[in-house]
Design a protein that fits this description.
With 241 residues, this protein is mainly alpha-helical. 85% of the residues lie in helices and 0% in strands. The protein has a domain of 143 residues: MetI-like (MetI-like fold), CATH 1.10.3720.10.
Length: 241
């Protein structure tokens, strides 16, 4: 909280020293444009479009990355076969994936979500693979002796051990996906926060760029504080007991 107050104070000071609201408006200069955008429904419309893309890309990336990471961490043969491709996609710039998806699929939401998901799947798979490698072999042996069903073994033996890794992958994945979705919208969509930032960038409207950027950041922080951190604390609670 103290750092936030210090940031706002520094912002007010720099804005007053600059004296040009077209270059750096003060926080107070953003209030009226924000209320106008919120009141007209424009902000909600574009924010909703971005959030839907984030949810879709995040869900695909977590599901595919979890399955891929679990297979690679459990079966060394698959790991040796897939590891080179994992390295390639880990180091492939997001911009390349975005451009290729738009060229191959078209300027559609499918291409946008696919580009974001493909960018994050390797990261999730890497984290889950390390968790799968760290699974307790004694628990696996015990489950085999007692002939535990595969679904029961996955639910009660594997998932609790992987929970911290899943939480870590989800947190880092969400942070990256927020950013990549804005780039996708900036380059090739007709709505969303990224599209609006692109629009006002072309108009050199710093005030509106800040309004949409800060609105998005505020929502992202709300998700982090209200959903991600409580979920992560609950997952890690058993380690502190």
């Amino acid at each position: 909280m103290v750092s936030l107050v210090a940031f706002l104070a520094a912002w007010f000071l720099l804005a007053s020293l600059g004296g040009d609201p077209t270059v750096l408006p003060s926080p107070l200069d953003l209030v009226r444009p924000f209320l106008q955008e919120a009141g007209s429904g424009e902000l909600l419309e574009h924010m909703s479009a971005t959030i839907l893309r984030v949810i879709a890309a995040f869900s695909i990336a977590m599901a595919a990355g979890f399955g891929l990471g679990l297979i690679m961490g459990t079966y060394p043969g698959f790991d040796r076969w897939l590891d080179p491709w994992l390295v390639v996609f880990l180091n492939l710039p997001a911009l390349v994936l975005i451009v290729l998806c738009y060229l191959w699929i078209g300027l559609t939401d499918v291409a946008a979500v696919a580009a974001v998901a493909l960018n994050k799947i390797p990261g999730v798979a890497t984290v889950i693979r390390e968790g799968a490698r760290a699974l307790d072999p004694d628990l696996k042996a015990m489950a085999r002796v007692y002939q535990v069903r595969r679904t029961t073994f996955l639910h009660h033996f594997v998932l609790p051990q992987l929970a911290p890794y899943i939480a870590g992958a989800a947190r880092s994945g969400l942070a990256v996906i927020w950013k990549v979705v804005l780039v996708v919208e900036f380059l090739g969509r007709s709505n969303g926060i990224g599209f609006q930032i692109h629009l006002y960038f072309q108009l050199f409207d710093v005030t509106m760029v800040l309004v949409y950027s800060l609105s998005f950041i505020a929502f992202m922080l709300a998700v982090e504080w209200l959903l991600v951190q409580p979920a992560e604390s609950r997952v890690r609670a058993w380690r502190q007991a």
